Amino acid sequence: MNAHNDDSAISKVAGAIAEPARTKMLCALMDGHARTSTEMAVIAQVSASTASAHLSRLKKDGLVKLHTQGRHRYYSLAGPHIALVIEALMVISQNASSTFVATTPSRLQFARTCYDHMAGTLAVRLHDHFIESGWLIGDGTYQLTADGEKAMSELGIDVDVLRAQRRRFACSCLDWSMRRPHLAGALGAALLHSIINRKWVTQDLDSRALGLTPKGRKELACRFGIEAST
Prior knowledge:
It contains eleven helices and ten strands. The chain has 230 residues and is an alpha+beta fold.
């Protein structure tokens, strides 16, 4: 593609994201769950026919994908790369010229899902601990050190399996509520999966929020020296 075509493609996708109802839909899908067009209509506060038109536009521009199961049709984000873009736009949308004060609801600000990995205060603190402990090295795109591999193995994470996946192994994702990076990529997704399975956090049924359990609070303090509370 030449520069003109690149510009046109960017404008087209930006236009798809910019419409308020479509923005609401994309943000709602940031928890990684697929939803029906009826559910998306309620979220976007539009009619069923309007929701279908919006979803068709998002699908055409590669922002969402359609899953068909029998008579049921579900929509989800097209992939983790879309979640990274939405998260970055959330950061940009804040007024960078003024002193930053997080206005995110406290429960979401503490811990939430960002597509298939964890975001929020807790995620940022874990990211910082991994860097400070010498487990992760790199600048935005990370590799695990030997100590890091051991630490992840102790969490039940198979690093070799993650490296074989056709996606980025480990990378930073700028947290829109903290304006600092948290861990994304295959490793970030595996970490979230691990702490949910270990019942360190629980997932809300109707939002992206993650709740810290007493067990999780104890494990975070013992393993990572993180004193956390919601």
